[in-house]
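[Automated response] Your request has been received and processed.

Submitted sequence:
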Amino acid sequence: GLCAICGGENVQIRGRTVALAVDHNHKTGKVRGLLCNGCNTSLGRFKDIPMLKKAIKYLEETDGDIQTTT
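Generated structure:
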């Protein structure tokens, strides 16, 4: 009953309980696990594995610092 990514539980949003989502592979339909709303929508925004890997690489290389160019 916990999010497979962050360990979160069902949450209250505007007085409503938002249950964990059943995450699945959109190509195969295979269920992967339960995700909280935040983790589920975050994964959806990345759309594909290569984009998620780029985001992880960016965070690892920058150590979370915001990089600016001039």
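Summary generated for your ticket: The chain is about 35% helix and 20% strand. The beta strands are 11-13, 16-18, 21-24, 31-35.
If you did not submit this request, please reply to this message.
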